[in-house]
Every structure is written in C-alpha cells, then in structure tokens.
Amino acid sequence: LVQIQLPAHDRVYELGRLDITIIDAGKDYAKALVNDKKIAMLKNMGYRVDVLIEDYQAYKDEIFRRGFYHTYNQVYLVLDSFVTNYPSLCHLDTAGLSIQGRAIWAMRVTDNPTIEENEAEIRLAGNIHGDEHIGTEITLYFLRHLLTNYASNPQVQNIVNNREIWVLPVLNPDGNVANTRENSNGVDLNRDYGFFWAGWGGSPGPSSQLENQQAMKNLLANNFSIEHNYHSAAAYVNYLWDYHQSDPPDSQHIISLSQVYADSSGLTIINGYDWYQVCGSLQDYTFGTSGALAWTIETDEPIGSSAIDQICYDNRDALMDICNRAGWGIEGVVRDSITNAPVYARIEITNPQRVDVYSDQNLGDFHKMIQAGTYSLQVSANGYNPK
Questions:
Q1: Helix H or strand E encompassing 272
Q2: Could you give the CA distance from residue 207 to residue 158 in angstroms, rounded to a whole number?
Q3: What is the largest distance, in Å, between two alpha-carbon atoms of the chain?
Q4: Phi/psi of residue 170, each to 5°?
Q5: What is the DSSP string of 229-263?
Q6: CA 214 to CA 233: how far, in whole Å?
Q7: CA distance 187 to 128
Q8: Is the bond preceding 166 in cis, omega lying within 30 degrees of 0?
Q9: pLDDT tens, 179-224?
Q10: CA atoms of 41 and 47, how far apart (whole Å)
C-alpha cells in the first residue's frame, strides 16, 4: 500500500488509466496497491511514492486473524441456522458457484420467501473484494436484525411483509477464503462488469468472470429497486457514476437518498468519479442495465469486535430507512390486455426524463424509486404497441 503525492486531484485519473489499483484518494494524494515494478514506473514519471504498508497481504491476513470476522464456512453455518429457526421468513439459495466451486450464498427475506410477490426488491451484497470482510458482517448483522426482531418490532414487520430483501454476504468466495482482493483468476471483480468496461483490474473481457456472471443472472431474475454494495477503504456513501463525470437524470434523487443514508450511518457522501474513476464497477452495471438505484458503501475495517459491531449497527439503521423508502415512487403491473398475462416491459420516464426500469419477468410488476411529482411514462414490450 502506497501513498502517491499528486500536484492536483485531476492527476488521479491518469493513474486509473495506468491500471493502478486505487483504493482511496484526496485533494493531493492517492492510496494505491502496487508492486515494485509499478512503484518504479510512477517514480520515473515524477511522482513521489511513499510506502505505507510493505506487505499488504500480510497486513490483511493479520486483520482477519485478530478480528472478529466470519470465515466463509462460518457464514454458511449462520445462514443455515437462520433458515432452520425462521423458515417462514427466509429462504437460502445460491446465485451460483465460484470458479473453484464455492457457493455464492443468496438469502431471500420476506413474509412468503418461496413465493414471488408484487413487492419492491432490495439487494445487499458484501465481499466483492475478498479481503474486505466488513461487508459480510454488515449484511449478516442486518439479516439477523430483520429475522430476530420480526415478531416484536412493527417497523421490521412492515419491511419484511412489504419488501423482498436479498442478502449476498460473500460475492467473491474464492477471494474470501484466500483473503485476497481478487478472485482465483487474479481479477478485481469490481473492474470486470461489462458496463463501460475498460480492461482494468486484470479483467480480460467485459463480464468475463464467473462470479460476476452469476451476480448478473441474479439481477436479471429479480426486479431490484435498490442495491447496496459494501467495501472497506474509507468512510463514504459512494454514488453514481463511477466511470464518468456526467450525472445521470436521477442524480438529484440519488444524492438526496445518499444523504439520508450518510446522516444515519455517520458516513460522508461522495460522487464515485469525483473520488476516483472506476470502469467496470458493479454499481454502474446495476444502474446502467436495470435502472435499480445502486450505491457503494465504504466503511472502516477495524480489528476490535466492539468497533465492528458499531459499524454494523450504524449501517443497520440506515438500511432500515432506505428499505422503507424502496417502495416510494411509481409502481404498477404490465399485463397483456387480452390474456391478462404479465409482460416483461421497459418503463420509460419521458417527461421529465429519468432512467428506465423494467417490469418483472414473472409477475409484470415494476417499482421506480422517484421523487414526488408528475411524470409521463411510456411502456414498451416486444410484440406490442407502446402505451
């Protein structure tokens, strides 16, 4: 881990194009993971490079060894115990398998967990970088809160009864077991997604990695309104876009929701591109292909159990608020006017323009998180006239 001194923040974009793995950046510096060859290259380009941690792998191994973080096998035991104790509230499946054959666990939480219902859906994912374990803890902590408090807490009951929450605590199982940022192919999964992909992070092609392909199938099979991905490098609510400086049409609403989460969790909001550019990120892919509002949540990754619990607690309260808001906006069902069968369709918000969303392939329902106001919609589907 090194700190690279920058004459101006704009130089951070040059580093990204050199395929430097940046994990944090400020006004006049960038923190990056580099080898000796890249250190020499940066110095030859005139950058001052200060080594912060000589052996980053050993540093991450020590955090995991001394910290109170679940191993991959322990995560399964926790999820399995939840299914045993709360079978009417959760259903455990996999989003698929990793390269080395490990399950990517996917827990579905709702009041009818084996039945598809007309409800806003939320996806919470952790550990896309295998050595960032706090995301696993935050997602498990929130899952535990929903299940253990359902019987006694009306707010929890309302969310579980009226939302469908997917918890994927370990998106990178092989990286988790090896305690490495990358997967077993040495690819940074958060640079591999095929939405404005640029070949960063060792990715040989757009959406080339099996783990990402499984997460994409999970996205396509469900109709998410919100996604939160959990990382550990700073203390930010990172909002769209990562790849480009232009804001999407939904930016005002995205920023306001980012502030809601930040106020509750004690984090600071930051635009992804303004922080540092990332091409091929999960949040850009999710929003860009499905219209689901997506964030990357960055927190510390402490060693002590009390500090870990506090981070989980703060994010739990923020998630309760955001999950409640997931059902706010425009919702409906698209059906064939003759057969009444559900139709998979695109819902365009044309005036004022917002990012499109899609109806569920099984039920035809859609849920667009949007600010209060008056909007014009156009619904389109293959084989039908738009309406």
A1: helix 272-275
A2: 36
A3: 69
A4: -135, 95
A5: EEE-SSSEEEES-SS-SSPPTTHHHHHHHHHHHHH
A6: 25
A7: 11
A8: no
A9: 999 999 999 999 999 999 999 999 999 999 999 999 999 999 999 9
A10: 9
Q: Could you report the per-residue pLDDT of 154-178, keeping only the tens digit for each?
A: 999 999 999 999 999 999 999 999 9
Write down the pTM of the prediction.
0.95
The token duo for 79 is 């999820």
The 21-25 sheet, strands edge to edge: 21-25, 29-33, 2-5, 49-51
User: What is the tens place of the pLDDT at every residue in 26-78?
Assistant: 999 999 999 999 999 999 999 999 999 999 999 999 989 888 899 999 999 99
To which H or E segment does residue 112 belong? none
Gyration radius of the chain's alpha carbons: 21
Pairwise CA distance, residues 41 & 64, whole Å: 31
Residue type, 212: N
**C-alpha separations of 318 from 24, 63, 103, 142 in Å:** 23, 26, 28, 10
* Beta-carbon contacts of residue 154 (< 8 Å; ≥ 6 apart): none
Q: pLDDT confidence of 256, banded at 50, 70, 90? A: very high
